[in-house]
Amino acid sequence: MSCSAIYILDVKGKVLISRNYRGDIDLGVIEKFMPLLMEKEEEGLLTPILQTTDCTFAYIKTNNLYIVSTTKKNANIALVFVFLHKIVQVMTEYFKELEEESIRDNFVVIYELMDELLDFGYPQTTDSKILQEYITQEGHKLEIQPRIPVAVTNAVSWRSEGIKYRKNEVFLDVIESVNLLANANGNVLRSEIVGAIKMRVYLSGMPELRLGLNDKVLFESTGRGKSKSVELEDVKFHQCVRLSRFEIDRTISFIPPDGEFELMSYRLNTHVKPLIWIESIIERHAHSRVEYMIKAKSQFKRRSTANNVEIVIPVPHDADSPKFKTTIGSVKYAPEQNAITWTIKSFPGGKEYLMRAHFGLPSVECEDTEGKPPIQVKGAQRQIKGGSPRPPDPFTVQGRLEMALKLLNPCNEPIVTMASRTDAGVHAINSTCHVDLLRQNGTVYNTCSITACLNKYFNKADVPIRVLRACIVPQDFHCGDTFDVEKMKEAASLLEGWHDFRTFMATSRGRLDKVTRKYIEQINIIQNTDRGYSSFSWPQFIQPKSNYLFLDIYVKGKGFLYKQGDRGREFD
Questions:
Q1: Structural domain of residue 239, as residue ranges?
Q2: Which end of the chain has less Cβ packing within 10 Å, N or C?
């Protein structure tokens, strides 16, 4: 490959980051890049590769930033572009948003990354999970002798050793999008499905996973196509997949990276019915204005809903004075894209909506010479997830919380994990829970907004639940963490003496004890790990006993109410 240097430029061509790896090209050669780029753009001959007498520029543009590679040799240009996109991916995972401000705020970390990504112009470690082990954004006290992470030189370079989770979980999403091209008469010229299998893995150790595909799925290399088979093309696997095993029995066997990654992507050439059909009528009034009428119709079942649909309509480059009117959603004019974007947050099946747009024009004399780009439809029309989502139970605190959290429109199913549970009739002042919330645009929810939204829902629904506070916690946080024995002893001391325990007793006998005031002489809580275990205190078929905290609770009193103390009580 042999990259001589890597540059990151702003939209005006100013150098933000530069790193010279080989020293065979003067760093000042980058000053020729922007004039050459503007010249080619004016001539209509713009390409991702620009050549001068001194060197060759290969570049990509993202968020008004140019990532540029220079080389003097006959490099593998495809590999160069893959590496440039990998730079963007790594920095996005580090800084969430790759833009000029994040570049300036994190230039020290970026230079460290550039030193690890390339060595003398050749790619080295490009896995962000491994890079984050020794290039961090926070201060850490050095407690061990510095050494290279084992994963860098290990056969499984994409996963570190010693990963531990309190709860082992795997999430698998199949995300598909439809690309469809139709002519002016409404006839479909070309259609295809582009899909990806994405996973989020939170497993301990070095697990080996296997994924089997349906027997109807064939690959273009097999040559055994049947009338009812599904033939996948352009299949691309993550580097963790054992290709030799896949070639033998078509089983996807792999040791997954930690966290989120794309397991495979594919393309399917097939005749598909467009999920959302677009019809447009354009009326041009000479030398004055142009009017658009866009009709969008959903062609899927009524019980389904398309979320965050974006319809992009191209307009003339000299259009001005936009005016919009729509039956649903919002419309914005993007002059830098010469287009308007019609956004529909929720598009039910079997519905159709209209949007009208009006633009002023200085002149339309050259309208026949201009190209007419197609209208684009974007949106998360279909997502297939493993397993059926569990419907929230409206008669529990957990269920009510999950119903309220759905009002935040997360892209995942909010599953609430409570810190403790109570039986019917047992009262609790407050509790703690945790939940994963993934936003559509990838940003983090505002915790104050979460609290306000949930309490507004509970108040409107007349539900006696209030959220006191919401906060962001680490990925390995669990609300039902280890008991604080000293706090438990402090709480137990409040129950000693004379108290009315009527809310502690069970009522399953159909009658209540007449005297509910009882005297508790003493409560002792002892942490004990050297003891016998029962099926209640140690479910050894689930996890080893080392993962549990065992407590002996001794209560001494003069008489107890019916089931005031439940020996088989399980605490989460």
A1: 169-269
A2: C
- Whether 89 and 184 share a structural domain: no
Instruction: Tell which residue, 118, 113, 114, has the closest CA to residue 133.
Output: 113
Residue 310 forms part of a structural domain = yes
330: CB partners within 8 A, 6+ apart: 342, 343
455 in any annotated domain? yes
Does residue 494 sit in the same domain as residue 473? Answer: no
Q: Identify the band that residue 534 occupies on the pLDDT scale cut at 50, 70 and 90.
A: very low
What are the pLDDT digits (tens) for 60-113? 998 889 999 998 877 788 888 888 988 888 888 888 888 888 888 888 888 888
Tell me, yes or no, whether 395 and 424 share the same domain. yes
Highest mean pLDDT among 8-12, 26-30, 70-74: 8-12
**Whole-number pLDDT of residue 197:** 92
Q: Specify whether the CB–CB gap between 295 and 353 falls below 8 A.
A: yes
Residue 161 included in any domain: no
* Among candidate residues 14, 135, 6, the one with its CA nearest the CA of residue 58: 6
DSSP string for 328-397? SSEEEEEGGGTEEEEEEEEEETT-EEEEEEEEE-S--TTTTTS--PPPEEEEE--EEESSPPPPP-TTSH
Q: Ramachandran region of residue 448, left (φ > 0), alpha (ψ -120 to 50) or beta?
A: alpha
213 vs 511, more confident: 213
Q: Which residues contact 448 (CB under 8 A, 6 or more apart)?
A: 470
pLDDT over 50 at 572, yes or no: no
pLDDT at 254: 92
Helices of type H across 29-140: 33-43, 77-95, 100-105, 107-117, 128-134
Which of 431, 463, 481 finishes a domain?
A: 481
Residues 379 and 397 in one domain: no
pLDDT in tens, 402-427: 888 888 888 777 888 877 665 555 55
Show the tokens assigned to 298. Answer: 């959903």
Q: What is the CATH number of the domain that holds 234?
A: 2.60.40.1170
- Domain assignment present for 542: yes
- Distance, CA of 46 to CA of 36 (rounded, Å): 10
* CA dist 203 → 14, 90, 170, 209, 476 (Å): 44, 22, 7, 11, 11
